[in-house]
């Protein structure tokens, strides 16, 4: 008589597992890189630095930009926006602005997913004469800052 009751309880206990808490900046391993639009990227050394972004980069955002931490965990900056209103942003079209956002885990993470994101940025840089060399270097790079340097380097 107890056996069916235990089985039913075990089945229902597994169905109501709570989802993991949403990530916060405390979950990130710094430095992190944010990929804005198709060509712009920036590195942030700590959570305080991540709270201020270039107005130009914010203007390049099409959907939640990916954020990659130094251990290749990939997140999205959902609801990314300036803490200032539109009038202030129009009066200050350059420089930095404090920002707010919500971190969301990306379904893909890891070094290969990171390389794919950086390769997409690199492929858009059609003016480069050394794209093949940069692609090869990106395929062997082991750090987030090294990958960023390959995409941003002159």
CA distance, first residue to last residue: 75 Å
| Low-pLDDT ranges | none
Tell me the radius of gyration. Answer: 20 Å
What is the helix tally? 7
Strand order of the largest sheet: 2-1-4-5-6-3
Task: Tell the overall outline.
Answer: globular
SSE class: alpha+beta
In percent, how helical is the residue content?
25-40%
Number of folding domains?
Answer: 1
Count of extended strands: 6
The major pleated sheet works out as: 6 strands, antiparallel
Oligomer: single chain
Rounded mean pLDDT is 88
Which band does the percent of strand residues land in? 15-25%
Give the SSE string: HEEHEHEEHEHHH
What topology emerges from the helices and strands here?
Layout: H1 2-15, E1 32-36, E2 40-44, H2 47-50, E3 52-54, H3 55-59, E4 66-69, E5 74-82, H4 86-91, E6 96-105, H5 111-123, H6 131-140, H7 144-152
Antiparallel strand pairs: 1-2, 1-4, 3-6, 4-5, 5-6
How is this structure best described in words?
- This protein is α+β, with helices and mostly antiparallel strands.
- It has helices at residues 2-15, 47-50, 55-59, 86-91, 111-123, 131-140, 144-152; strands at residues 32-36, 40-44, 52-54, 66-69, 74-82, 96-105.
- It has a six-stranded antiparallel sheet with strand order 2-1-4-5-6-3.
- α5 runs parallel beside α7 (144-152).
- It is globular.
- The protein starts with a helix and ends with a helix.
């Amino acid at each position: 008589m107890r056996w069916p009751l235990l089985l039913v309880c075990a089945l229902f206990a597994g169905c109501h597992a709570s989802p993991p808490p949403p990530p916060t900046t405390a979950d990130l391993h710094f430095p992190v890189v944010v990929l804005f639009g198709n060509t712009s990227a920036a590195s942030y050394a700590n959570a305080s630095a991540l709270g201020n972004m270039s107005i130009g980069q914010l203007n390049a955002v099409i959907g939640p930009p990916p954020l990659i931490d130094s251990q290749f965990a990939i997140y999205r900056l959902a609801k990314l926006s300036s803490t200032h209103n539109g009038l202030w942003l129009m009066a200050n079209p350059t420089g930095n602005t404090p920002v707010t956002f919500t971190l969301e885990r990306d379904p893909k993470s890891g070094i290969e997913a990171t390389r794919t994101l950086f390769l997409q940025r690199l492929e858009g840089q059609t003016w480069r004469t050394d794209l093949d060399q940069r692609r090869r270097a990106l395929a062997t790079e082991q750090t987030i800052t090294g990958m960023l340097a390959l995409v941003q380097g002159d």
